[in-house]
Amino acid sequence: MTMHVPEQQAIISGVGQSAAGRRLGRSGLDLTLEAVLAAIEDAGLDRHDIDGISSWPGFKPDSPGFSPVSIGQLKDSLGLDLNWYNAGIEATQMSGVLNACMAVASGQARHVLCFRTITETSAAVKGNRPSLIGNGPERVSGFAEYLAPFLAPSAANWIGMVATRYFHEFGATREQLAQIALNARRNAGLNPRAVYREPLTLDQYMAARMISTPLCLYDCDVPIDGSIAVIVSHKDTAPDLKSIPIRVEAISGGLHTRDTWDQMDDLTRYAAEGCGRQLWNRTDLKPADVDIAQLYDGFSFLTWLWLEGLGFCGRGEAPAFVGDGSRIALDGALPLSTGGGQLSGGRLHGMIHVVEAVQQLRGTCGARQVKGDPRVAAVSNGGGPIAGAMLLARE
User: Fold this and answer.
1) What residues contact residue 30 under an 8 Å CB cut-off, 6+ apart?
2) pTM of the predicted model, to two decimals?
């Protein structure tokens, strides 16, 4: 390569995860501090070494439990002086980490703390479940105007329709899609932090209630309470760390499609495709160099689109690529969602995949550790017009 790739100045120095589960009844700040302090300890830093904070989507008081912690709250709780900070909703869900890489590369900060916290299940218990089409007689506006008349308030509705089109075009079946969920559950059984660890069979999957055809209950990620923290540092700080630093090889977060979930030129092509092209243009690595893949699974179908978008297989080939699940198993050619992903580990908007990738590359995953000393991991995040991806590597 001849191009300068600024993100290669960044490393992931620390990762942390709070307790995760359904209806924990703890505040978002409490969970965030648990994850953050674990990440700081993992890196071997002092909290006052943190000079940046980055997150997605920012504090959202109008959506109970969706994003309950602000940067200001976290800054004050830790007693930090920040040289740089960032959060915002109009970005890929991975923007907290992607922006941190750019901040470190440009010298705005040395150690940036990225976090994602959700308390949606506790909020729902209190009757505060958010809805795009509202919870009462009030008028809706914006994006929801075009969804409310068709009673389509959920991404499950939008993605279910796209999946139906994909099934029609490429002859896919629910039995093939099931392998994404079954693989995630097998791996979750080896992960003590996963929310759902009991075995799941194909018969159980096929008998599960439908949510939005062809997506059944097990095709949808699990709403939880929990928090993830990731520390992005400049690579020059590596000698000072306690942890094994993981190098950022490339990042991508482009928007090459229309900014819509349901009015794209080709309904079976989401933003993953353009994101993948941009990612591989920023590295000499190729898909064949990837040892493990932690691909977004807010819905199982999205993992198929990421396999295709990142070039692991061609258009319409993901069902056959996954096959009977052996290729994506822990001992397969491309281990996928090795910690259980969001389908069994819990919905933390893809950040759970970043932590799993780092731990796999460090070789610290215990019973679920991928054999053969994995060195390169692909991580992706998002569906519809939202897409972010990164390549992580261990020296």
Assistant:
1) none
2) 0.94
